[in-house]
Amino acid sequence: MTTVANNDKLPAGEIVATRDALRRPLRDLRISLLDQCNFRCPYCMPEAEFHSEYEFLKRKQRLTYDEIIRVVTAACALGVTKIRLTGGEPLLDKNITDLIKRLSPMPGVHDLALTTNGMLLAPMAQKLADAGLQRATISLDSLDEDVFRRMSGGRGDLRKVLAGIEAAEGAGLGPIKINVVVQKGVNEHTILELLEHFRGTGQIVRLIEFMDVGNRNGWRMDQVVPSRELLERIGKRWSLRPIGKNYPGEVARRYEYADGAGEIGFISSVTEPFCGSCSRARLSADGMLYTCLFANQGTDIREPLRKGADDDELIDILSSIWLQRADRYSELRRPDLAEHHVLKKVEMYRIGG
Ligand code: SAM
Ligand code: SF4
Ligand code: SF4
C-alpha cells in the first residue's frame, strides 16, 4: 500500500504529483553521478579542501545504474517528470551514455538534461544526444582567460569549454544554457563581455548569485552581486524587458533584449529567494536524498535499495520524505547572524546544484 498523495488533481493524463508540507509538488530530480570533478572552482570545491589526499566516494559506495533507474521509477510515480544529471563533473563518468539510454525512454521522464563544466563535452556531445539527452547546461564563469582559469581552480581550458558549447549546439542539445556564478570583485567586471559574446546565438546566459552552499567556500554576503544591481548595469548597455516563466517552478527570472538578440536569466537565490515554488529533490552519488540545496541532512536510499526494498516500498520511502518536506532555507537565510554560518550543510559538489 503506497502513501502517495496529499495533493490536488492535475489535468487528466498527468501523474498526480505528491505535494510537500507547503503544498509544493515533486517535479524535478537532480542526480549527482559522482562527487569527483576535474575543476576546483573556489566557490564549490576549493583546492585547499579538495586536495590530492581527499577521499572521494569509492565505486561501490556509489549507486549503480540499476539503482538509479529504480529511484527514478519511484520518483516518476510521485510526479517527477524532469531529470537532470549532474555531479561533481558528470562527464567523468565514462559510461554516462549507457545511463542516458536507459533513462530517456522511461515513460515518466519528459525532460532529460545535463549540467557540466564543458571540459570533456566536445567529443561526447553527439553521443550524449544520440543516447537521448535532450538539453545541456554548461557552466562558464568568464571569457577572460585569467579570470576563467582562476574560477576553475587553475584547471579549466576556455577553448575546450567553448568547443563543448558549440558541439552541444550542433548535436541539438539546445537551447544551451550557460551558467555563470557572479562573484564580487572576481568576475563581475567580465559579465558584459560574456553577454556580448552570447547575444544573438540563441544560447541563454544565466547569471547566478554566489550562494552559501556547503561550509567550505568561505561565502560572505559582501561577495554577492545582487541580481537587481547586475540588471541595472546590463540595462545601461542594452535595453531589456522582463518575460514570463516557461513553466511553474522555473527558478530564473527571464529578460529579453529589446533588439531581439535573445534572453538572459537571473537566478537570485540569495536576494530574491524562490522557495515557494521549489519542486526539486536531489540524489547524491551515494544515494542520499536531499529536499533542499542547503539541507543539513538527507535520507539514505541506498540502504533500503541494497536490502531488497521492492518498488512499492521505495515509493513509500520517497513519498514520506516529500510529504514531510518544509524546507525554505533561502527565505529564512540570515547572513547577519553568526549562528547562520555554523549550520552544517551538504556540499554542492555532492548534490550538483
Ligand atoms: N560540474 C558541473 C558544473 O559545474 O556545471 C555540475 C555540478 S556544479 C555543482 C552545478 C552548478 O552549480 C554549476 O553551474 C556551478 O556553477 C554551480 N555552483 C557551484 N557552487 C556554487 C555556489 N557557491 N553558488 C552558486 N552556484 C554554484
Ligand atoms: Fe566542479 Fe562544477 Fe563544482 Fe566547479 S562547480 S568544482 S566544475 S562540480
Ligand atoms: Fe528550494 Fe531549498 Fe533553494 Fe528554497 S533554499 S529554493 S527550498 S533548494
How would you characterize this protein structure?
This protein is an alpha/beta fold and 353 residues long. The protein has one domain: Alpha-Beta Barrel (TIM Barrel). It has twelve helices and twelve strands. It has a twelve-stranded mixed sheet. β5, α6 and β6 form a beta-alpha-beta unit. The longest helix has 14 residues. The chain starts with 27 loop residues before the first strand and ends with a helix. The N terminus is likely disordered. The chain binds S-adenosylmethionine (SAM) and iron/sulfur cluster (SF4) (2 copies). One iron/sulfur cluster binds next to loops.
Summarize the structure.
By secondary structure, the chain is an alpha/beta fold.
Major sheet summary line: 12 strands, mixed
Low-confidence spans? 1-13
Number of helical runs? 12
CATH topology grouping? TIM Barrel
**End-to-end Cα distance:** 33 Å
What fraction strand? 15-25%
Arrangement of strands in the largest sheet: 7-8-9-6-5-4-3-2-1-10-11-12
The small molecules bound here are: S-adenosylmethionine, iron/sulfur cluster
Helix content: 25-40%
Class computed from helices, strands and strand pairing: alpha/beta
Would you state the CATH class?
Answer: Alpha Beta
Shape, per Cα inertia axes: globular
